[in-house]
Amino acid sequence: MKRKGFTLIELVVTMSIIGILGSLSFIQYSNVQENAKVIADDIQIENLFVAAELALLDGHAEDSITVEYLKDKGYISNIPDPISKIGEFEITINNKEILIGINEDI
Question: What is the 8-class DSSP label of residue 83?
Fold first, then answer.
């Protein structure tokens, strides 16, 4: 007697394997998205650091710089929002050392 088609066990095993592979790829994909958000924030922080450094070198600001100040003076074109966290970028200057982070207390 010739067999046509697949048995129920073969179909269940195949579907289980496909389900496991699908869940693994979904986990990988969500990690890639989160990493991309963190990298985007790092790039924004680098851009804000360069803008704040230029403002200090130009003598426009002595010890206090805000993101709004950088936009008003033309050092940045828009005020960026963090992508990986909810909050806003905050610039702190301590003895001509520029520190930039994300303030989550808004």
Answer: S
CA distance 3 to 28: 40
Separation of first and last alpha carbons in the chain: 74
Strand partners, 99: 92
Contacts of 88 (CB under 8 A, 6+ apart): 67, 81, 82, 102, 103, 106
If one compares 57 and 13, the residue with the highest pLDDT of the two is 13
How far is it, in rounded angstroms, from Cα 7 to Cα 80? Answer: 58
Q: What are phi and psi of 90, to 5 degrees?
A: -130, 135
Q: At 80, give phi and psi (nearest 5°).
A: -80, 150
Q: What is the dihedral of CA 75, 80, 82, 87, to 10 degrees?
A: 100
This prediction's pTM: 0.67
